[in-house]
Write a structure and sequence with these properties.
This protein is of the alpha/beta class and 282 residues long. It contains 13 helices and 11 strands. Strands 6, 7, 8, 9, 10 and 11 form a 6-stranded mixed sheet that branches. Helix 7 packs across helix 13.
């Protein structure tokens, strides 16, 4: 008979169906609690060799998850609602986050840190990330004071059809020093609602920088530059087409708030400096 007055402090056997909670738990030193991960996990790299892969994004190996006897499954977004429902009916505790903004990412990270008893360390890491974002904003302010412009940035999440940046990516572009070319679409959580059907609409927005993160498919700058009518786009004329790999920016967790935004910031500052030096074609 179990002791009714003794209970575990937080979940001890966690399945993470997306990468961001896996990365966060590793950063917190709580990887021993993880018993299963998403097959798309690449951060941290060692997780792939240490943990069984039991889910994709919109599908999961339910039998393998149940065999792991998790006391908590962590998921992300409405796209995993059906998987969550099956697990809940099987008696599993499931927590599905739906973070879409930078603030919501920080909130998710705080909640997960609390769940595993790492509130203090979690807050220290969150504050460090916030300070990093503030330092980026300060660097941008300094460039603007010197007369630099903010570049217009088109972030392409998929190529056919064209899908623009989701909310946290749009916000991070702003923090990094750029202006999202399609801010009105960023609030749409579903990719199908961020489709830009006509490529000429993108041309009309005249992006200075084009960033591609094609959900795991390699970004091809030469293909983008060769699109019909795109030759006069400033980003194409000046060779400002770059890839930000999906695990670094499209996972709404630590990666996006550090490495992902850091890459965007570096590219934006380089563009600002070139603009100040008069090195960019008009």
């Amino acid at each position: 008979m179990s002791d009714p007055f003794s209970f575990p402090l937080g979940p001890q056997r966690i399945v993470c169906m997306t990468e961001e909670t896996t990365e966060w738990l590793y950063l917190l030193g709580q990887e021993a609690r993880i018993v299963g991960i998403s097959g798309f996990t690449v951060r941290p790299r060692r997780a792939r060799s240490e943990k069984p892969r039991v889910s994709a994004f919109t599908s999961a190996k339910i039998d393998k998850i149940l065999a792991l006897q998790p006391d908590c499954v962590l998921g992300f977004s409405d796209l995993q609602a059906d998987i969550a429902a099956v697990l809940i009916r099987a008696g599993v505790q499931v927590t599905v986050y739906n973070q879409r903004s930078v603030a919501e990412i920080f909130s998710m990270m705080y909640q997960v840190a609390s769940m595993v008893g790492e509130v203090d360390q979690g807050m220290q890491r969150i504050v460090a990330m916030q300070q990093g974002l503030q330092a980026m904003q300060d660097a941008v302010t300094s460039r603007l004071a010197a007369g630099a412009r903010r570049p217009k940035v088109f972030f392409e999440e998929w190529d056919v059809p064209h899908i623009s940046a989701i909310q946290w990516v749009s916000e991070l572009i702003g923090i990094a020093g750029g202006d999202d070319c399609f801010p009105e679409l960023a609030q749409q959580s579903l990719g199908k609602n961020r489709i830009i059907a006509d490529g000429f609409t993108i041309v009309q927005r005249s992006p200075d920088i084009i960033l591609g993160s094609w959900c795991g498919k390699k970004f091809r700058p030469e293909t983008v530059a060769a699109r019909d009518g795109w030759a006069d786009v400033p980003a194409v004329r000046n060779g400002q087409l770059f890839e930000i790999k999906s695990p670094d920016i499209l996972q709404p967790g630590p990666a996006a708030l550090t490495d992902g935004v850091g890459q965007i910031h570096k590219l934006v500052l380089a563009w600002m400096d070139a603009d100040l030096a008069g090195a960019l074609a008009p």
